[in-house]
Amino acid sequence: MSNNTKIAVRTASSTYEVEIGSDLLPHIGARVDSLLNGGLSAGKQRVFVVTSPEIWKLHGERLASGFPFAPVLLSVPAGEQHKRLATVERLAEEMAQHGADRDSILLAFGGGVIGDMTGFLAAMYMRGIRYVQVPTTLLAQVDSSIGGKTGVNLAAGKNLAGAFHHPLAVYADTSILSSLPPAELRAGLQESVKAGIIRDRALFDFLDTESAAVLRGDRDALTRVVADSVRVKADVVSADERELGLRMILNLGHTLGHAIEAATQYKQLLHGEAIAWGMIAATGIAAHRNLITADEAAQIERVVRAYGPLRSFTTNATELVALTAKDKKNRSGARSFVLPLGIGDATVVRDVSEAELLEAAAAMMSEVNSLQVTA
Predict the structure, then answer these.
(1) Which of 24, 90, 222, 256 is buried most deeply by CB count within 10 Å?
(2) For 184-217, what is the HEC assignment?
(3) Name one GO cellular component term (predicted).
(4) Which residues are catalytic?
């Protein structure tokens, strides 16, 4: 436990730590109790754990063993399709039935869907209670559990209902990652690739040169990737808490990626897989604008593909472009689009035309359709 990495997230409204280490789960109860000044062990405060049946079956016993009293379980079925207001309302009703009050604490124990919903539930229950993130997927550990963005999806688009509400702490247990299916691990690594592209050349180069170790789940390699990715996210969030400027670079690949998810009803690709396609399209736009050298654009595409394979999906370019008009990053009717300027640097532009975006989406869909033919 002494070798654990702790990274501070400091914003105008909140300061907290992300702790990264192996075999953290049995110790989280004691850490939460300490954050609450002994409120759990004294029986004054209660913990409500939001998780899925699958996650609890795999890891619940180890987590629960560290709490002085058994937490109340709030169960959510796995899958992005459950990330809706109706689910949050049901969870809030269950909390009320179990006597949750302003001093109760929520614990998000799962991937990005669980984390986003739990944070939103914490933000709105009794106008705001405290919560802790215990992310169980690589994607959640390196990205979605950090920064206080919470929310749910609407039929019109992803994360269109939500709030900024920071956790008390984030505990990333890297030993959990060995239980992830290979596709989940690879999808999560795409968010780390993104972090390298936008802000950390050394992380990108490590993902490039050490891809074999990373992909086979080498614990030391994954721990470095998680820690470096978290530092990128913490640095950006600390500088721009409310996504008014710099923080938008974290959305590289997400404009078209979210459109792909919405067009496929969140059923055909994992989030990281959709973002991978979006990063390739964004890199293509940047290359056509001569914002990035051809060599660096090719290197980005190569590394994104190395953490694939990129899977096919069913939609069309016109539908994807129409869906980008509903992206939550848009301002005053103009699309906000993140483009790489080089490995380790990115910018936000608001002048990507519909024709330009349609061309990039069509090129992407041409490759997607060729995958379907050869499958």
Answers:
(1) 256
(2) HHHHHHHHHHHHHHHHCHHHHHHHHHCHHHHHCC
(3) cytoplasm
(4) 127, 149, 191, 233, 243, 247, 251, 254, 258, 271
Amino acid at 100: A
Instruction: Give the number of domains in the chain.
Output: 2
What are the DSSP calls for 95-151, one per residue? Answer: HHHTT--TT-EEEEEESHHHHHHHHHHHHHGGG--EEEEEE-SHHIIIIITSSSEEE
Q: What is the per-residue pLDDT for 44? A: 87
Q: Which two tokens stand for residue 106?
A: 């929520």
Look at residue 327 and tell me whether its pLDDT is greater than 70. no
Give the range of the structural domain holding residue 124, as residue numbers without chain letter: 5-179
DSSP classification of residue 227: H
- Do residue 167 and residue 204 come from a single domain? no
The per-residue b/e assignment along 303-315, b for 16 or more CB within 10 angstroms, e otherwise, is bbebbeebbbbeb
In this predicted structure, the answer to whether residue 367 has a pLDDT above a threshold of 90 is yes
pTM of the model: 0.91
Residue 69 inside a domain? The answer is yes
Return the amino acid letter for 267. K
Establish whether 115 is an annotated binding residue.
Answer: yes
Q: Is 113 labeled as ligand-binding? A: yes
Verify that 196 and 161 share a domain, yes or no.
no
Could you give the CA distance from residue 329 to residue 322 in angstroms, rounded to a whole number? 15
| Residue 273 counted as an annotated binding residue | no
Judge if 276 and 167 occupy the same domain: no
Output the domain CATH number for residue 35: 3.40.50.1970
